[in-house]
Amino acid sequence: MDLKLVRMELDAKPKKIDLAKIESLVEKEKSVILYFDRENSHKDLLALQDHFEAEGKSFYMNEVKYALSDNDYMYQVHIMA
C-alpha cells in the first residue's frame, strides 16, 4: 500500500510512502504523527487504520482544513504503539 504524504508547496507533487516505511517509523519512534495529502482515498486511510488496530496500536485520524476552500485539507494520522 502506497500513500501520499502532504505536499509542501501547492504546485508540487506529493511524495509517496509505503506501509513498510510507516511500520518502521512506528517501531522506532513508538508514537508517530504523519500528514497525508488529500489525493489519498479515504478507503486507503481506513485500511491503514484497520492494519494498525489489528496489531494492537492506537490510531487517530483527523481531517485538517488549512484554508477556506473545500480542497484545502489534509489528513493528520497519529499512530501510537
UniProtKB/TrEMBL annotation:
InterPro entries: HP0268. It comes from the Bacteria. Pfam families: HP0268. Residues 1-80 form the HP0268 domain. This is HP0268 domain-containing protein. It comes from Sulfurimonas marina.
